[in-house]
Amino acid sequence: MTDAPPTSREKLLRRRARRLARATVAYNIVEATVAVAAGAVAGSIALVSFGGDALIESLSALVILWQLRGVHQDREARALRLIALSFFVLAASVTVESLHSLFDEPAVSTSPVGIALATTSLVLMPVLSWAKRRTGTELGSRAVVADSRQTLLCAYLSAVLLVGLLTNAWFGWGWADPVAALVIAAVALQEGRETWRGETDDD
Prior knowledge:
Elements: H1 8-42, H2 45-68, H3 73-104, H4 112-139, H5 142-171, H6 176-197
Helix pairs in contact: 1-2, 1-4, 2-3, 2-5, 2-6, 3-6, 4-5, 5-6
């Protein structure tokens, strides 16, 4: 994006990017709340981890809203570093809890709410990611494009979560839940690294 006065098309794209970011924040907050609550009831570390990741991803969308208001880039960089640190903390805590669950083999209850949530996210997140990427590319905003990738990662995590929950529900394999959580932790670690470095697909 340049310092020239925005054209009418640019203004439209900025409004669209803000709407998509607000939708991301709203959905992720609901997703995090439902996931953590359902995970606590079922004893599922994967669901709780998924909720924690969703909450941190909502911070990324808030940074986009902040950036689109013309906030100084140095402040945006500091905010992105904080988001990256949050991903690192999430990855570390989930890894510890997952390994503990694998060794203790606690009973994990079937979670119909978690399965429904994972399925819903698996359907919605790719569509939202596509809309963000298209808008960010036309707008010339690397930040919006990068945020679209995080949204797509949410879809991948939804697939991992769904496999873990269904495996436990169908076969009673409780170990599938902490294994799914470890995959989520690995993705959160990668998200943190890329957020810290400010990498995008356009690099």
